[in-house]
Design goal:
Length: 141
């Protein structure tokens, strides 16, 4: 058994190092679990026939990157702009950037018009554990 092979004095050394570093399990400042939002936004791209396209092979990025990209464009909007206009600008900028950086531009041109979808998944507000889903096209190119 490996526990019998490790000398007892090293256990105290490891414990001291964990306490000294202060961000190592089990002495971390951050709790192992956290509260989650009641809604999640997921983005995906579909072709002209509304078939979803995989992000990595077609655009060279992961879906989490697309969500962050959309969020960064949305955060650049001025506070005076109408929120719907801001979202539209952010979605258009996101899909433009995806198309510009695709590793297979000829294939993507054949699949156009491309649609950027936003799927929103929410927990029911009454606490029943129900889930609501909605899909919305946010940009077409």
């Amino acid at each position: 058994n490996i526990y019998y092979k490790i000398p007892f004095k090293y256990t105290f050394f490891i414990l001291f190092m964990c306490l000294w570093m202060r961000d190592a399990y089990p002495f971390s400042h951050f709790p192992p679990s956290t509260s989650f939002d009641s809604k999640v936004q997921i983005f995906f791209v579909s072709d002209s026939l509304n078939r979803p396209l995989a992000f990595e092979p077609n655009f060279g990025v992961r879906s989490s990157h697309v969500r962050k990209l959309y969020g960064s464009y949305k955060n650049k909007c001025k506070s005076l702009e109408h929120i719907r206009l801001c979202r539209t600008k952010a979605a258009n900028a996101t899909i433009h950037e995806l198309i510009q950086h695709t590793p297979i531009p000829e294939t993507i041109k054949l699949l156009r018009p491309l649609k950027l979808w936003q799927r929103e998944i929410k927990l029911a507000p009454d606490g029943s554990g129900g889930i609501w889903e909605s899909d919305q096209i946010v940009a077409i190119l």
